[in-house]
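Kindly draft a sequence, keeping tokens residue-aligned:
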Amino acid sequence: MISCHSPFRAAYGWQRNGGHAAYLLAEENTCVALPDNLSYLDGALVACGFGTAWEALTRMRVNGRDRLLVTGLGPVGLAAAMLGRALGVQEVVGVDPSAARRHLGTELSLVDHALLSESDTLQRILDLTDGKGCEVSIDCSGAPSARVLALQGTRQWGRCAFVGEGNNVQFDVSPWLIHPQITLFGSWVTSLGHMSELVERLCRWNLHPDRTVTHTFKLEEAAEAYKLAADGQSGKVAIVFDSD
């Protein structure tokens, strides 16, 4: 539904009220069954960051022949790393300016190499990949420099996806896109069908998206939760409803 162009489109949290309430009235045909071994927090993350990462990775047909470069180790970047591993990638290289997020990526064993965003980062990526770059890359930050780095760090004939929202990007098209014959994907969130597929895989793989949650807040603490998330130093920040 998110890609529907009808003026009557009504997506939760956009054209209609979202989840910042104790209860949400939902249409039955938009509900995805949650297996017993997944928590409600797991399910909430499927409906947002993990679904976004899953859509991009599956569109790029990530598999065991690939090394994965992730620029931006926020919630979506961590999701991309976790799912990339589940899809069999040989190695995950993560890049982020935040020391806390780089540490989280390695602490959760999602990233093999967590690199600081600086002037020689591309060379370090090339050093880690025998001068070739990664077969597949994904920018989850939306930062112009990170988008360029994701593209530059992609191997010849590789695949690169931009999923981070906002900002812009500028690069020399011939040496970084045309000549290495890279396929560049723009990918936005996901569909109900692909969310159902992702839930099935998470259940089978016994993977839990809630591992990427570093902070939880009550509904009345939403402003504090958003402030922390906006600081860009944490994993996923969740607002939870306390039934007590």
User: Anything to note?
Assistant: The mean pLDDT is 94. Residues 1-244 form a domain with the Quinone Oxidoreductase; Chain A, domain 1 fold (CATH 3.90.180.10).
